[in-house]
Design a protein that fits this description.
340 residues; alpha/beta; 5-stranded parallel beta sheet; 13 helices; Sterile alpha motif domain-containing protein 9-like
């Protein structure tokens, strides 16, 4: 807060070479209670000099974000996470101010955490030394505040440019660089829970030549994309096991049974609530054990036996936290399409 325009504190990422781990390596930490990391902000506040600085620190230090580390051996390894605290000292908050903190120390005899004398620190590279020449540092605050304001202005402009660039890239990917959707291409959509505020913005899907949808939202008919889409277009609901071809039919007969080219095949990949005799949703570990193979068979069948190469585009429509089954589905499509 004394030096930078922003920064992020990570737990679960190595900051030094130690043992067989390298600097910057993502290793993650196990979490027993997320609330401990939220409550830690209260202790951080107490480290600051006075009530005004405590309030300002609260405005600058954001609540933690928890990012799950994806392990290849997910079935046997305990879940680990990277915890991120974003620190965004806006110029409007910290301008012309110097912050002092007292580092907390645990006193074993008293069984209490006490803060040291409150002194000013500054961030220099990966280190946080005590400010020794206080007069010189205070004289340089004007320049640092100006740098903050310039950086904030630049980020605001860059954000707009980035959004426009992302829109252009997405448009090119969906249309092949043309001014409208390419009706010669089939589209496969992979999606999960769609937030209610986004359901009003999915009209573009109706105009796409959808072949199938891999839907990981078990409530999709009740409050999600399936219920919204089928109001405008006919669909055929399926489960992953429907693509297993247990009767060993010829491809043409099996495709006809699934009615793949008659209607959009809507595949409920993690069960379907509010549906009699339907599959129930399961947690990630159970899905990996019981349904991942079925997903792989469905993807392989569609990519190799149904649709010709280069005749389709796969779109991942995600507006909520991405879970491992969706990641696995991405990997499967990526492999079957040879990275294209």
């Amino acid at each position: 807060m004394n030096m930078r325009t922003n920064g992020t504190i990570h737990f679960g990422i190595m900051d030094k070479n130690k043992g067989h781990h390298k600097h910057g390596e993502i290793i993650g930490i196990p979490l027993r209670n997320r609330e401990d990391f939220v409550d830690a902000l209260d202790y951080i506040e107490r480290c600051f000099k006075d009530s005004n600085q405590q309030i300002e620190a609260r405005h600058c230090i954001r609540n933690p974000r928890f990012v799950e580390v994806c392990n290849k051996d997910k079935e046997t390894v305990e879940k680990t996470w990277v915890v991120e605290y974003d620190v965004i000292p806006k110029a409007s908050i910290v301008k012309n101010k110097l912050y002092s903190v007292g580092l907390p120390n645990f006193h074993e005899k008293e069984g209490k955490v006490k803060c040291e004398e409150k002194v000013p620190y500054c961030r220099v590279g990966a280190n946080t030394p005590l400010i020794e020449d206080l007069v010189c540092f205070i004289q340089g605050l004007i320049e640092k505040d100006q740098q903050r304001e310039e950086a904030e202005s630049f980020r605001a402009e860059s954000s707009l440019d980035f959004q426009e660039d992302q829109k252009r890239k997405l448009s090119v990917l969906l249309t092949g660089g043309k001014t409208k959707m390419d009706n010669s291409m089939f589209y496969i959509v992979v999606t999960s829970d769609i937030q209610p505020q986004h359901l009003e913005n999915i009209a573009f899907l109706v105009n796409m030549k959808l072949f199938c949808v891999f839907d990981f939202d078990p409530n999709s008919e009740i409050s999600g994309l399936y219920g919204k889409y089928k109001e405008q277009k006919p669909v055929t609901p399926h489960f992953l096991h429907d693509y297993e071809n247990v009767k060993r039919l010829e491809n043409a007969a099996f495709i006809e049974t699934l009615k793949l080219f008659d209607r959009v095949s809507w595949i409920f990949c993690n069960g379907r609530n509010n549906f009699p005799s339907g599959e129930h949703p399961v947690d990630e570990k159970t899905w990996i054990k019981t349904r991942k193979k079925k997903m792989k068979k469905a993807v392989t069948f569609i990519c190799n036996e149904v649709l010709p190469k280069s005749s389709f585009v796969v779109v991942f429509l995600l507006t909520s936290d991405v879970k491992q089954p969706v990641v696995d589905t991405f990997h499967e499509f990526y492999a079957e399409m040879n990275g294209h």
